[in-house]
Amino acid sequence: MKTTNNHIQYLGSSPLDEKWGLTVTTVGYQRIPAHSTYPSVTQHPQGYVFNPQKGRTLSEYQLVYISEGSGYFESASCKRQKIKAGTMLLIFPDEWHTYYPEENGWYEHWVGFKGNMIENWIANKFFLKEKPVFEIGISSNIIGLYEDMDAYASKEDAGYQQLISSIVLYLMGEIYFKVKNSAFKESTTVRKINEAKALMKRNISNSISAEDIARQLNVSYSWLRSRFKAYTGISPTQYHLNLRYIKAKEMLCTTQMSISDIAFALNFETVSQFSSFFAKKEGISPSTFKKKYHLDPNPSHKPEEE
User: Fold this and answer.
1) Partners of 81 in beta bridges
2) Could you tell me the CA-to-CA distances from 242 to 84, 89, 120 in Å, in that order?
3) Three-class SS of residue 135?
4) How many CA atoms lie within 13 A of 249 on its CB side?
5) For residue 96, is pLDDT > 70?
6) CA neighbor of 76 nearest in space, from 90, 104, 57
7) Which residue, of 24, 142, 170, 211, has the greatest Cβ tally within 10 A?
8) 253, 281, 277, 280: which is closest to 263 by C-alpha?
9) What angle do CA 74, 58, 16 make, to 5 degrees?
10) In this structure, are residues 25 and 61 in contact, taking their beta carbons and an 8 Å threshold?
11) Do 24 and 165 form a contact (C-beta atoms < 8 A)?
12) Which residue numbers delimit the HTH araC/xylS-type domain (predicted)?
């Protein structure tokens, strides 16, 4: 059980920190006891002052994690909803929002951040203003990460911004991972997708189509394609091609096989087809890749002439 009621830090960053792609602006935590004022009476810099009745708009992103208690959240793009312990809130910049605990209070942790990295995630719709609430569960690991950020920020050792912003990166990845997998609670779906992956891995060098895999799994091709792509981000056909590409790199690096032998071993119809496929993936031809990265198991080390 934590004994400190609150700890709030506002952080600066240098031009070098900002080149990292993500900088942390604030980090902290606070316990709101039952039947008490929210937020607690604390002096905040201009732009952070919070009135739950009026709400506020920030100039940065924030991840707010509720580890105890329950309350409510609302934003311009998300209707008012009840939140409970184990909930993560992603606050967007220039987005009106408000949140507050019920009468029994709560324990909240937060980190504010900004940078090109998060802007890229938002531009590519990894996270949406319309879906800023994530039920990721109560996790001592996540609480520990917030505490680590707070501790590193307090010391301000050289490179601390890069370290704590990397923890933010992990937290965002953790959220995305949990959200993606929560959409596939049906064990049959995940099992079928894993079986499809296993079939493709066993048939890297064979001509097996997505239609063949669907038949072997007793599902329709359309079902397999849609569910597989929703789960992995790519179609079954593209997944199988990626396996062949990875195998081709391995063979080019570790075997004495010719380019044509590798092409036919991986079931490409022609060497030209293989070369075009590989060059599109890697950016260089198979022969150039082989010359550059082949690992000779018996290298000759001739002494240099004096």
Assistant:
1) 73
2) 41, 35, 25
3) strand
4) 12
5) yes
6) 57
7) 24
8) 277
9) 140
10) no
11) yes
12) 194-292
Handedness of CA 82, 83, 88, 91 (dihedral sign): positive
In the chain, count of helices (H) and strands (E)? 11, 7
Nearest Cα neighbor of 167 from 180, 153, 185, 186 is 153
Residue bearing tokens 């910049």: 93
Treating both helix axes as pointing N-terminal to C-terminal, what angle do 160-182 and 116-123 enclose, rounded to 10 degrees?
20
Give the CB-side neighbour count of residue 113, counting CA atoms within 13 A.
29
**Residue that has been written with the tokens 């993500």 in this structure:** 22
pLDDT in tens, 144-193: 999 999 999 999 999 999 999 999 999 999 999 988 887 776 678 888 99
Give me the amino acid identity at 74: E
Encoded tokens for 200 = 């493709």
Q: Exposed (0-12), middle (13-18) or buried (19+): which is 153, by Cβ within 10 Å?
A: buried
Residue type, 232: T
183-234, pLDDT tens digit by residue?
A: 776 678 888 999 999 999 999 888 789 999 999 999 999 999 999 998 898 9
Q: Which amino acid is at 203?
A: N
Cis before 39? omega within 30: yes
Question: Locate tokens 């019920």: which residue?
Answer: 102
Rounded CA-CA distance 9/153 in Å is 8
CB 101 within 8 A of CB 69: yes
